[in-house]
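Chapter review. Work through the record for DNA 3'-5' helicase before attempting the end-of-chapter questions.
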Amino acid sequence: MEKYLSQLNEAQLAPTIQKDGPMIVIAGAGSGKTRVLTYRIAYLMSQGIDPFNILSLTFTNKAAREMKERIAAIVGQSEARNLWMGTFHSIFAKILRIEADKLGYPTNFTIYDSQDSDKLIGSIIREMGLDKDIYKTKQVRSRISSYKNSLITVRAYFQNPELKEADAMARRPKMGDIYKEYVDRCFKAGAMDFDDLLLKTNELLTRFPEVLMKYQNRFRYILVDEYQDTNHSQYLIVRALSDKFQNICVVGDDAQSIYAFRGANINNILNFQKDYDNVKLFRLEQNYRSTKNIVNAANSIIDKNQTKLDKVVWTANDEGGKIVVNRSLTDGDEGRFVASTIWETKMNEQLENKDFAVLYRTNAQSRAIEDALRKRDIPYKIYGGLSFYQRKEIKDVISYLRLIINPADEEALKRVINFPPRGIGATTVDRLVVAANGYKRSIFEVMKNIDKTELKINSGTKSKLQDFVTLIESYQVMNENADVFELAEHVTRTSGLIKEFKKDATPEGVTRMENIEELLNGMKDFVEGQKEVADATASLAEFLEDVALSSDLDSDKEDVDHVALMTIHLAKGLEFPHVFIVGLEEDLFPSAMSMNTRSELEEERRLFYVALTRAEKQAYLTYALSRYRWGKLVDADPSRFISEIDEQYLDITTPIEERRINPMLDADIFGDVSPNTKRNVVSSNNIRFKPAKQVELKKGSPAKEQPKFQPTVPKKLTRVESSGASGQEANLFDGKLVAGNIVNHMRFGKGEVLKIEGVGSDVKAEIKFQQVGVKKLLLRFAKLDVIG
Ligand SMILES: Nc1ncnc2c1ncn2[C@@H]1O[C@H](COP(=O)(O)OP(=O)(O)OP(=O)(O)O)[C@@H](O)[C@H]1O
Ligand SMILES: [Mg+2]
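Structure tokens for DNA 3'-5' helicase:
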């Protein structure tokens, strides 16, 4: 047996060496699914399968690169190089690059990133004279995206009255018209957006049987990682390509399906066995990633979901430390806890920064963490922010390059036609756009033929337009002989970009210049790198394709030692020794937007499962009692997810508060309460108002009795139990604190006690604070000093 196969356990070995036929590996996190795919590819090659015939689809380009390196270590670099490996988008962009003319696109088509799409949609909404508060750009884009991922073309849209009706109900009756205009304009600009890369591939494979056959024969073996997160469009591509040979191997975990909001369909994994004949099903049960505590805690979480496949996950790894649960008063404190824990752990255990990751639900949460890390001089990197290639100055340069290979590219043209300023005003551009739409030509063509049009543009402006056309055409000539680096270097100098950026001597301006330099360095690298690959051309088109599809997760330089900060969505498939999951608060995680149906809440829970299972050695769960959101300090309650973990796996440094939730509304969030009444009030600016606390004890009932509507926090986790009515804390102020006392509160400052009410653990004080007015505080939680 091949030596590397001994690095697999028996259960992993079986799918690895199952050469032919459809197969699925369903297994929990950390059980070696990705490892099986990697070794399977090496195995197929050792069995004489040509790497050109193997297609492997991964979730990130980074994952693809890592797999390739691993395989190269086994079978050798030169063979591994010929594998087709990458994300759906990058692989099918390459195929479309070859076949695009069949669909009426130039093979040099541009890929619009989400910024480009947003800009185009924004201008369409403006041109159509629609209300931009109703037709919000991002919402419109996500709607269009969901049509495309469900393969609803413009024509299909207009044939289906239900769709139109749904949009009309959502107060957007013109959605279809925007969709049509957007698609037309992209097509005219020779541009595909991200979703087109899949949609057009589907179109290609259905409309052109000979093309389908070509790629079916090419990709005799297909492997897909993270299959649970494929959307309909991706699903159909995989089905079509694998239809002939049926050598399809998918791996996934239904418990980690977290992209439903972007159209991922968990049924793809559930139905796989129905889609193909004689499917071999494999299961892996042993987790190699995490400690027993983490594995068991994660199991106890996912158990709460109703919709799931039964799976066993266990580990032979050490017990490990319990999961640390930390409460902070504010998000700032939370950041400080994270930073100081990282700092101390690094010292005590001799670790590096890259052994730590901080995961959050929303990007906005990174700020407080960043501040705290900076104060301690701990280097960090945020993943998933604005990627390098989306920064303004970089996009400016890239837009020139895009225009060189595809002068029809409307978004690129609009970006640089007057940058650096050359006296072509917005009105002129608007006229050009209208004319181009009228003539059904690109703006660039209209500009080239400006004398033949009837546009009302004065001769001074006309000659400026012609100069611009000449400039771009001169670059096009240069592009025939120069490489990407030489061309870009020339463009930045002669277009006036460098001069323009140099004018700005502020630190930001200096950073811009550095970024451009970095871009040029990257191009040099690209050119050198391509020289090593036999059939590569180092063409500008290839470079731009890499740029359009790169995310900053991909460009991660392994040699830099930093703490990783990212959203949980981005962390899928990754692993880190120490993981902090921050902001575990109701309405944040689970997100306020995702609590309307059981399936939404279950997706949030899967997200939590993904987060927790990234940790190898130690996990930390943190929450704050108040946090700045939308510029306001809002109160927060600990997330239900913390209390859903079996307590034996937790190390709770500070007892968890009862959730201040209206028991009437929360009795059974999906049960007997009508959906209209159960939600909290949402104000117009989307800030959720918390209903007043109504967990009152019945008169005369013993203090220990739990309220009838016990929130989902298990009894033992509530402060009532841990310190108890009989414990000292609850009685701390009994009898000691009386009306008239002057107290000091950590957050509210100085105040006077007006009255005391309630019994046992429910004793409250009404206090008039100098700064914030009258507040009612539960004494067992309130941090008060009596000062008079
Ligand atoms: N048989 C094995 N022996 C030793 N280590 C293993 C074995 N199988 C997997 N591992 C290691 O366990 C970790 C998890 O494996 P892998 O990433 O393949 O799991 P996964 O099932 O893909 O996880 P996820 O669901 O998070 O994507 C990796 O570090 C991997 O190298
Ligand atoms: Mg994996």
